[in-house]
Structure formats: C-alpha cells, structure tokens
Amino acid sequence: MSDAPGPVGELLRHWRQRRNLSQLDLASRAGVSTRHLSYVETGRSQPTSGMILRLCDHLDVPLREQNRVLLAGGFAPAHPEHRLADPPMAEANTALEAILQAHLPYPALVVDRHWELISANDAAFDLLDGVDPALLEPPINVIRVSLHARGLAPRIVNLDEWRAALAVRLRREYDASADPALGELLDEVVADGVETAPGAAALVVPLQLRAGSDTVLSFISTTTVFGTPREVTLSELAIEAFYPADEATRKILNGV
C-alpha cells in the first residue's frame, strides 16, 4: 500500500477483498447491515472511529494499517508507536533480552516486520562466522544474509528446501500485511522460480548448517510474538528461537 492513505471506504474495501470476504460476510461478522457497509465503502456514509476499528478488527488489519485507515477517516491514530530506544519500551526490551539470554546455548534472535535484525544472543552471532562483513552492516536483513552467496547460503546443506520454506512464510506474511517491503523481499527469494504455494515446503523444515568440514548443525525454529499487543512496534516484533533437531547438534551446543 502507498504511504498516502486513500479514502477510508476504499481502504476498508481493499482489506475486505484481500481477506476474500464478501460485504455480507464482513457485515455479519461486524454486526452491521450490508447496506451500511456498502455506503461506507463507496463514501456515501462516513464511519465513526469505533466503526473503523470494529471493521479493522474483523478484517485482522495490522495495527500500523489500522492507524492509516483511521487517518483516512479523519481520526487520530488509535495505536501508539515508539522506537525501541524510547523509555516506554524499556520493559519490552528487558523482556526480549531476558528471553534471548535464557535460550542459550541455543541461537535466538529478534526481527522486525521486514526481517531486519533487532537483537540476538551470542549463539546466534556465532552462526554468522564467515559471513561477508558488508552483509552485517546495519540494517541486517536476516533472510538476505541467510540466502546470499557471501552469507550463509554456501554453508546451508538443504539450501533449496530452506529457501522454499522461507518463501512460503514470506508469502503468508505478505498476504496478511500487504507490506510492499515484504513483497520486494519475497520477489528476491523467488527470483529463481522457488515455489511458494502452501504445500511447497514440508511441515517442519530444519536449517542444516555446515560447521566445519565434517560437522552439520541441524535446527528447527519457533516464532514467538507478543500476545495482544496494542503498540505498533511491539506488534511487529518476532523472536526466532532455534532448537537442536537432532542429538548430535544438541551435544555440540551443550558442549557434551
């Protein structure tokens, strides 16, 4: 979506169509008449801020985009947004760092909505050994580093499978958010014709990373997000935690 918000009705229609809902579907979920929803979408009726938020909630519109729709309707944003360095974010930062440190000796990192690195524990940074230093200049995009020829790609044993898994995830995130930056990142990942259909990747795809001439570390990953956040930045952060996918990796990381 463009930076400049369009008419509020057009934005709401955009999100309804993106969620593959009919006017009747959305009206039933939100408890409004189909006629009223039609009037809102065509600009014949101006919705209140409460109505905008109700429709956005049923459309699962990201908080950042909810603020955009509110602005288009002539209302102030409902969801605050801070930089991570701002004082109101101190408790969240403390929680993030505690989670990263508690996950040692296994790798864990925090990324934003564009997969740019926010923070990581020492085990995650250890995996970046040998990556071109130019790729590690902020902002560091985790996906680009992992798939770049001067990044982790030469060390990923199952590179094609891992790339396909990332493509599927990016497709899902782009479909949910309509974020142009994610669309561009997805285009980069699928440039070589990688399949992004939901069934293209296995249910769980390990990251198999070569560490030395005869050692392969195998990881499965989980994603953690803040529950029911009402702040834009927090809603867009994710903790990527990696766990050993086999006993050999577990022993190596635990120094057994």
UniProtKB/TrEMBL annotation:
It comes from the Bacteria. InterPro entries: Cro/C1-type_HTH, Lambda_DNA-bd_dom_sf, MLTR_LBD. This is Helix-turn-helix transcriptional regulator. It comes from Nocardioides bizhenqiangii. Residues 12-66 form the HTH cro/C1-type domain. Pfam families: HTH_31, MLTR_LBD. The lineage of its organism: Bacteria, Bacillati, Actinomycetota, Actinomycetes, Propionibacteriales.
